Amino acid sequence: MKKLIVCAFLVLLVLSGCSLLAPENPIVGTWETTILGATTNYVFNTDGTSIGTTTVLDVGISTYGIWSSDSTKLTITWAGSSEDEVELYSFNGDKSTMTLSPTAGGLSRTFARQ
């Protein structure tokens, strides 16, 4: 009986995509902030690709890139840029907002999960 329970658990684990072993990165998703009439929207995909769109007066410009993170830093390499954008990140308790703070100085921005 124990072997049957263990086997059933292993099958369930495999079918669930091993999400218990590798939880999804909380950065993955769509994030948005509006500052001084400019709305910035970031989409961070599980495959490490990203899209950043800034919209002013209903005109948006999108940039594609790749992203990675460690426990404190988010690094984004935007297409056409020779420098990485490196930001310190933090979340509120339920991970519905994410604050990005540039490591090279500048203003912090708080994004809401969409």
What does this structure look like?
The chain has 114 residues and is mostly beta strands. The protein has a single domain, classed as Uncharacterised protein PF14869 family, DUF4488 (Lipocalin, Beta Barrel). It is built from 1 helix and 8 strands; from the N terminus they run H-E-E-E-E-E-E-E-E. The protein has one helix at residues 2-15; strands at residues 29-35, 38-44, 49-56, 59-69, 73-78, 85-91, 97-102, 109-113. Strands 1-2-3-4-5-6-7-8 form an 8-stranded antiparallel β-barrel. The model is unreliable at 10-17 (pLDDT under 50).
Helix residue percentage: 10-25%
DSSP strand count: 8
CATH architecture: Beta Barrel
**Mean pLDDT figure:** 87
Question: What key attributes describe this structure?
Answer:
114 residues, Lipocalin
Summarize the structure.
The protein has one helix spanning 2-15, and strands spanning 29-35, 38-44, 49-56, 59-69, 73-78, 85-91, 97-102, 109-113. The protein is mainly beta and 114 residues long.
